[in-house]
Amino acid sequence: MTAFKNLPAPPAAEKRPVSDTRHGITRTDDYAWLRADNWQAMFKDPSILDPDIRAHLEAENGYMNAAMEDTKPLQKALFAEMRGRIKEDDSSVPMKDGPHAYGTSFVTGGEQPRYFRIPRDGDVKDETIRTILLDGDKEAAGKAYFRLAGLDHCTDHSRGIWGYDDKGSEFFTLRVRDLSSLEDLSDVIENTGGGGVWAPDGKSFFYSALDENHRPSKVFHHILGTPQSEDRLVYEEADAGFFMGVGGSLLDDFIYIDIHDHETSEYRLLSTKDLNAEPKLVAVREEGIEYSLTEGGDVFYILTNDGGAKDFKIMETPVDKPGKENWREVVPHKPGTLIISHMAYARHLLWLERKDGLPQIMIRDRRSGEEHAIAFDEEAYSLGLSGAAEYDTDVIRFSYSSMTTPSQLYDYNMVTRERTLLKTQEVPSGHNPDDYVTRRVFAPAWDGEKVPVTLLYRKDMPLDGSAPCLLYGYGAYGITIPAGFNTNCLSLADRGFVYAIAHIRGGKDKGFAWYEDGKMDKKTNTFKDFIAAADYLNQQKFTSYANIIAEGGSAGGMLMGAVANMAPEKFAGLIAAVPFVDVLNTMLDDTLPLTPPEWPEWGNPIESREEYEQIAAYSPYDNVGAKPYPPILALGGLTDPRVTYWEPAKWVAKLRDKTTGAAPILLKTNMDAGHGGASGRFQRLEEIAFEYAFAIKVAGKM
């Protein structure tokens, strides 16, 4: 590999074979020792990591640094460009709520947000009326990692709950701040999911607690001024296969307990009129049936796939009789038009839907039944619906962007249908949308399906196959990758790259069926779709196989591992961020945080031989073979509870042992962070600059 010269010998992980037999099938794992036996405790105190494991990870980091040493000037240049596109002293447009309007801001050079409020109709530019409620930079001082979980004020605006994680392990601590004195109360709540929901009187709140395996299994009620040990257990979820969250209604009438996995859901409601009551079940969980609800005064509006509504429909039911027997359809199921989310206000019901890969916002007058849409005309774009903080309103807020159009924030009057542009994303270093082209093309898949691919490139780029391409993919959990504005990828486009997003099966880009066709026994469609996107871009001369660098993170990192095994010759390089590559071993380990809730997505290889064999057939770690792999960059986080650090570490060790090629296999482990990488906004840019530098080096464009 000409881009990587004179490298030292890479680390060679010691082989310590461990055999495991399931369903009469025996596998041997040479690198199982890289999984720390004390991982639960280590996530909270990384200093106790086994010295042999730490030594190996640090040796890998040393090799990675040697391989990337010559890119340091490029990394600095990329970082400067990306930072130059960020308005450093930026401020959000505050959201009105009661006598105040709440927002976030950054200061020049600041890594963390500040949470502020101003009088309801005050001028956000007037610093004299702005109260800084929480200064993230101040709270993060002296910490290698720090992530805020927001600030939620109570109904009378006197106090706020805020949360933080200072290890990257996603165990959040909650504090309560007096919003007049700006001092924290004595209350300290440990090991939470990151947020709380106030009772209407502002004297207590509800939160979800994480167990030792990082699962949100319990909801507690905390009364201010009392120790956490005295908090009342409101609900405990016995099934380790379900996630759980707690939320509240705009009208402060109910506390919602949301219990779900990837295909089944259940809600329990606690009336705020009796905080000590037992939560009441809305509709019992049924496998494969999802529902979510939002309050609309005397009714709940329920978004569900019940009754074969694969792309979802909206029902309504009386607040005092929310059971399924009382659900009545108000927005019917339309095959091919996926309803993503819904909201209700005093006079309007609204929902975000996606058809043919493009989103639109639908609004219905609750009195007349009249409907209209908010839509746009670009070939590919992204919409965000943030709604309103108050129930009795005719004005909602949404955002719009495309790959070439900076984000625009609007207030929208649902009665007059007037849009008010509140803010356009500033690019301080300059941005001319006319210099770029964004396109939506469709790559034919192996079975005749058409895979949407969003492209961004400079207008003057030759379409002769010579351009390098960063091809990004995810393809899991029904998550859709939006075709929104991303200032970072302009650094690649300006260097002659095509930036491409493959909207592959496993996401819901083309409706719920698109998701179903990329999970469980159909998981390989995800990988084949991504390869089909590469084939199309090569055939149409947007790029060529020799110039495609693929990128994906988390479940998208599994995608990288799978296509590396299936078609290594079609990629010049691969970037796998926190990659979920040891799929079979992880799905066999029911002590890991995400394993039981993930079985509906991937299969349960403990109970089912068939599902064991399905996963074993594609699991990237289990299918590494003797073949020439392209250059690979894998990135992990030591305290990552979602994709544990040992997955990329084991994968890289096996790749390096098996590859018949000379291309380098690199591992970078962030010893101070978890799944999300660095926590500060500029620290995160440094990581992106590093990844882009790898892509540019592989493409020979340094």
Structure keywords:
702 residues, alpha+beta, Rossmann fold, eight-stranded mixed β-sheet, seven-stranded antiparallel β-sheet, 13 helices, 37 strands, 19% helix
Cα Rg:
25 Å
How would you write the strand order of the largest sheet?
30-31-33-32-34-35-36-37
CATH topology (fold) name of the domain at 18-83 and 430-698: Rossmann fold
Biggest β-sheet: count, sense, barrel?
8 strands, mixed
Structural class of the helices, strands and pairings?
alpha+beta
CATH superfamily of the domain at 18-83 and 430-698: Alpha/Beta hydrolase fold, catalytic domain
Tally the helices: 13
Determine the mean pLDDT.
Answer: 94
CATH architecture of the domain at 18-83 and 430-698: 3-Layer(aba) Sandwich
Helix fraction by DSSP (H/I, runs of at least 4): 10-25%
N-to-C span = 15 Å
Shape: globular
Task: Describe what this molecule looks like in 3D.
Residues 10-424 form the Peptidase S9A N-terminal domain. The chain is of the alpha+beta class and 702 residues long. The chain is built from 13 helices and 37 strands. Helix 3 (72-84) packs across helix 13 (681-698). The longest helix has 18 residues, at 51-68. It is globular and about 70 Å long.
